[in-house]
Every structure is written in structure tokens, then in C-alpha cells.
Amino acid sequence: MKIKEMLDELSQRDSYKEFKKKYPNSYFSTGFFMLGNGGDKFQFNFFLPDESKIVSFEYPFGSYVCYDEKIDSESIFNNFDLKVDIDNLQEYINKIMNKKISRIIALINNNVWNIICLNGLDMNRIKINALTGEVIDKNDGKLSDFIKINSNKD
User: pLDDT tens digit string along 63-73?
Assistant: First the structure.
């Protein structure tokens, strides 16, 4: 399913209708997705410009969460003519990486996918222009590179 299709489904839910009554100036700003082993997770974030906060709906969209943290601004996400959408993201990543990736953590904002690919202890970061499919940046690493071991023995 594409992002636009999921947002259309969300717009039909009572929880979203109540949300829009309470926050009529809110708008869709980012999507957060986890794909692969362990199940998929889809979260849609809306910016509340009057309060400078984010509200999230998680699929299957039963309710929403309003976060207390203040944010300066968020861009409006309104161009859904994406070459790389959620329905083909995993396949697209597998093609770029030339292997099957077991877990993908992806955030789309300003029509750019910021992706972390996990495959065992291998970790790759990729930025992709969602409109064109162009790889903007790509780097490799190991998950263990991010774990700091404290060898002090007290």
C-alpha cells in the first residue's frame, strides 16, 4: 500500500476525524516505517503549527499520541507522486544493496527517505530522493560500531 492510500484510510477513521476537529490546522509532515523481520510498523506524524508539536497515528489508526516536545517547524508533505513509496521501498533497497535486507527503519520527510538497513550486525544508512529514486548518500558500518564498552572495573 502507498503512503497516500494509507493516509486516505486514516482520514476515514473516527479517531482522525476527531483529531482534525480539535486541530484543524494540522498537516501531514513525516512518515516512520519499520519493515522486515519482526513485523511491520507504520506511523504517520502530523505537525500542529499552533502548538509546535507532533501528533502520531500508528497503523491501524485506533488513536493518536500527542508529544510534549516543542518543534520549531515541519514541512508539509503533499507531493505523493513518489517513485519510491512504502509499497516498493523494501524491494528498492534490496536492489540498491544487492542483497535481501532483513530489517529496514525508514523516515520520509521533505520527499527524502532516511533509511537504516539492518542485516545481522551489518548496518547501512541510505538517503534516497523519493521523487526520483536517486541515492543521495550511502554508507556502511557495523552495529557494533555504535556500542561503546566501558572497560573500567570499579
Answer: 999 999 999 98
Q: How many helices (H) and strands (E) does the chain have?
A: 3, 8
Query: Within the chain, what is the greatest distance between any pair of CA atoms?
Result: 58
User: pTM for the full model?
Assistant: 0.87
The three cell numbers locating residue 32: 516512520
Domain that holds residue 50: 3-146
Handedness of CA 142, 146, 130, 108 (dihedral sign): positive
Task: Please give the tally of structural domains in the chain.
Answer: 1
Whether 152 is in a domain gets the answer no
For 55-115, give the DSSP string: EEEETTTS-EEE-----S----------SS-TTTHHHHHHHHHTS--SEEEEEEETTEEEE
Inter-residue contact 43 to 32 (CB < 8 Å): yes
pLDDT digits (tens, 9 = 90+) for 23-70: 999 999 999 999 998 789 999 999 999 999 999 999 999 999 999 999
Cell of 110: 521533505
Q: 15-45: b or e for each residue (b if 16 or more CB lie within 10 Å)?
A: ebeebeeebeebebbbbbbbbbeeeeebebb
* Pairing between β-strand 122-129 and β-strand 53-58 as defined by DSSP bridges: unpaired
The full length of the chain comes to 154
